Structures are given as structure tokens and as C-alpha cells.
Amino acid sequence: MQTCELLIIGSGPAGTSAAIYAARSGIETKLIGCRPKYAGEYDIDNYYGFPETISGKELQKRGLQQAERFGVEADCDRALAVHVLDNNRFRVKTETREIEACALLLATGVSRTKPGISNLSDYEGKGVSYCVSCDGFFVRGRPVMVLGEGNFAANQAFELMDYTDKVTICTQGKAVGMHHEYLDRLAQSGIEVIEQKIVRLTGDPALEEVVFEDDERRAVEGLFIAQGQASSSDFAYTLGLERDGVFIKADNEQNTSMPGVFAAGDCTGGFLQISVAVGEGAKAAKSAIEYVKRNCR
Ligand code: FAD
After folding, report:
1. What is the CA radius of gyration of the chain?
2. Which of 100, 127, 156, 297 is deepest in the core (most CB within 10 A)?
3. Which atom of ligand 1 is nearest to the CA of 33?
4. What atom of ligand 1 comes closest to residue 17's alpha carbon?
5. Closest C-alpha residue for ligand 1 atom 2
6. What is the distance between the alpha carbons of residues 297 and 285, in angstroms, rounded to a whole number?
7. Contact 254, 262 (CB under 8 A)
8. Measured from the CB, is residue 266 less than 6 Å from ligand 1?
9. With 0-12 CB in 10 A as exposed, 13-18 as middle and 19+ as buried, what is 115?
10. How far is the C-alpha of 207 from the C-alpha of 195, rounded, in Å?
11. What pLDDT digit, counting tens, does each position of 6-63 carry?
12. What are the φ/ψ torsions at residue 233 (nearest 5 degrees)?
């Protein structure tokens, strides 16, 4: 188990800016996240200080180098699940390890993945869930399905095994994108992975069946959405943070509704721009620094 004072999830402009401020003030800071979406060969023409323009890739590289100069440990790693412990610290399971942190800063950007199931929203709270630790209990012993193709989905399936052994993963028509170790563990746990696409849900008053593209049906009483990588909304659901749609609610100092959890950048909504993310990252770091000094030392 690794530990740190502040764990920042997301290495885009918000998370990296926060890491620079936190580490510079002497906070033991880890930063996890892989290549942010803007970090390609796109010209960033509206960011302060680059009259000749700069590519997203170069801006990102420079930000990370600056953070590392102040001692930030930055790794390309993905958080799969976040849990709050009895002592109010946070345990984050990633693809490669577990990290325990005193404070958590969410800067995971905004996820736009949509499952493409016509009547999904009709069943939210009636079998469709975005949070295993919130709703796994309600499907004890029942047949359930996790919708997703990657390691995040696999991890959700493992967590569901605490409640029921009738767990299947459906990739929603995508190719399986899980690491070999996860596939081996899924096979050992008897969790089937199917590559079909669900188009519709049925059941009254709650979910009873999923209907695939070829009209085949499967009895399912819980459908847990876990496509792509875990997003800020997934962490918000698990931690019980206040949300505004897909965005995390944060005040002017980037405090979320839970002490010790801060959020910055696109995941909090508003004007989705690099300059805003960098500014919010700085404010979130300031709040996190004060929290760590008061509560973690
Ligand atoms: P992001 O940059 O989205 O970074 C999110 C980070 O979180 C990434 O590192 C990601 O890997 C990580 N992450 C997500 N989930 C997990 C997880 N489960 N575990 C670990 N890490 C995770 N803005 C401008 O101001 N000017 C522009 O010219 C401009 N051009 C753009 C061009 C493109 C192609 C795109 C996509 C965006 C552009 N934007 C531009 C918008 C800008 O990129 C965003 O507003 C900004 O990047 C938001 O920063 P962020 O740090 O909040 O999130």
C-alpha cells in the first residue's frame, strides 16, 4: 500500500496545476492520470503567454515537467475505485496498486460516454445503477450485469461478487479492453464477458431483462454502468458527493460536499477551457493544502 498526503486523480491542466501548487508548498503529492484528450498536436491559441501558439502536447509536457521539478510523483495510472475509510482517509484502487491518501483532488475532466440504450433513464434507480458500493446490496443473490469493456468494468464486477455470484459483463458491442490479469481473474471467478450490444431494457416496475440487438434477452435485475475509465461522476456516486448532472458541485474554493475532497477543471462544469482548469487547480490546491496542514499532520 502506498500512502501520500494528497492524491490528485487526473493529469490534465487542472490536476497538474494543483500538483505544482501543492508540492511547492511541501505537501507530499501524487498525481495519476494518462494522456489528457487535448494533449495531441492541436494548436492552443488562447492560452496566456504563448504569442507564437503552442500544441496541447507540448503544454501538457511542460506542465508535468514543472510539477516533477517540485517533487510530484506523476504516473500514467487509472483509478478504478475510491473509498472513504473509517478514519476519513481515502483508499484508491488503481490499475496497478492501492494508494491511501489524507486528501483527494478530483480533476478527471468530463466523460461523454453514453451507453446508447434507448430507455436507460427510465430504469435509473429501478435496477440501473452507476455505483456498486451504493446499490450492490439491493441486488443480493440476483443476476446482474456490468456494462463496460475495460478494467473499470472488471473491477466493478469483482466488487459485485460481494453481493451476488451471478455476475456477467457486457461490453456493449466493443472489443474487450481488459488487461490479461483481469481476464484471468474474471475467468477464475466465473464471470462471463459477452460482446453483445444492449438496445433496450424491459420490466415493470423494475428492471427484469436486457434486450440485445438480435432481440435475444437475458434476465438481469441490476445493470451497473462502467464504460471506459472511471469518471468523476463515478467517484462522486461512490463518495456521495453532491452533483449537478454529470458535474461535481464545488464552491468558490473548490471544496466539494465532502471534507477532504476537492474538485477542479472540466469535472466541475462551467467554462470548459484550459485557463479556467489551471486557475481552479490552483484554488483547489490552496484548499487542499490548508486541509492537509489542519488534519493530516
Ligand atoms: P482534462 O484535460 O480532460 O484531463 C483529465 C485527466 O483526468 C486526464 O489526465 C485523464 O487521463 C484523467 N483521468 C480521467 N479519468 C481518470 C481515472 N479514472 N483515473 C486516472 N486519471 C483519470 N481549451 C482551451 O482553453 N483552448 C483550446 O484551444 C482547447 N482546445 C481543445 C482541443 C481538444 C481536442 C480538446 C479535447 C479540448 C480542448 N480544449 C481547449 C478544452 C480543454 O482541453 C479542457 O477544458 C481542459 O483540458 C480541462 O482540463 P482538466 O484538467 O479539467 O481535464
Report:
1. 20
2. 156
3. 21
4. 51
5. 12
6. 17
7. yes
8. yes
9. middle
10. 21
11. 999 999 999 999 999 999 999 999 999 998 888 888 889 999 999 999 999 999 999 9
12. -65, -40
